[in-house]
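User: Can you predict the 3D structure for this chain?
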Amino acid sequence: MVNPGKGTRQTMTYHISTVYAGGGSFADAVADTVAALADNDFQVISTIDVSQVLRDALEASLKPYVILGACNPGFMLRDIHEEPLSGLMLPYNVVVREVEDGAIQISAINPFAAIHPLDQAGLHHVAQEAQAQLTRVIERLGMASEE
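Assistant: Here is the predicted structure, written as structure tokens:
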């Protein structure tokens, strides 16, 4: 799991993150994230433009910040069969946000962090698979300019 700005790999953190290497606009980063998720069997089932919500509700200014609710239907079904209330921990959120100097950070929840409070051994296999797929998504977005 890449920790932006430090260039080191972290173990067991609550997120998997990278700095977007696509070189495009914020909208391009969001579109590329949605595409990378789709290529890894995730559907975006919700999109929250946090900066717009805060602007509308509080007249607050926030750099571009979008939360994508990503769902892999197969993982969701397996989770819910194992623990019916695991839906409280779903979907897996992916954040696209502008950081210092206009860079764009893309972060996904570490599925192990999401299921940790449930302490259900049966959910660990799903979390392991989901973590591998989300890691591929994040790594792809960090390498986009090298393709």
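Confidence is low (pLDDT under 50) at residues 1-10. The two ends are 21 Å apart (CA to CA).
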